Amino acid sequence: MENKNLQFKTTLNCGGCVAKVKSDLDNAQGIGEWNVDTDNADKILTVQSEGATEEEIVAIIKSKGFKAEPLSV
């Protein structure tokens, strides 16, 4: 499967929120690098997918009590 960048609008508002999902995203299969732009009004999460699907990433974020919805790239 090809590597691709996926972007999501999230409710990860601050460093504390990002810290809550960090371990799960770091350890998830199929996710390379990722970051959250908390300065952006939409709190954009960018994930370098190495096989992970949008649904899997949204599920990780939701499991920690936050919302994420895929953005069309």
From TrEMBL:
MF terms (GO), sorted A to Z: metal ion binding
InterPro entries attached to this UniProt entry: HMA_dom, HMA_dom_sf
CDD domains (alphabetical): HMA
Residue ranges of domain HMA in the record: 3-69
Domain of life of the native organism: Bacteria
Protein's name according to its UniProt entry: HMA domain-containing protein
Species: Flavobacterium hydatis (Cytophaga aquatilis)
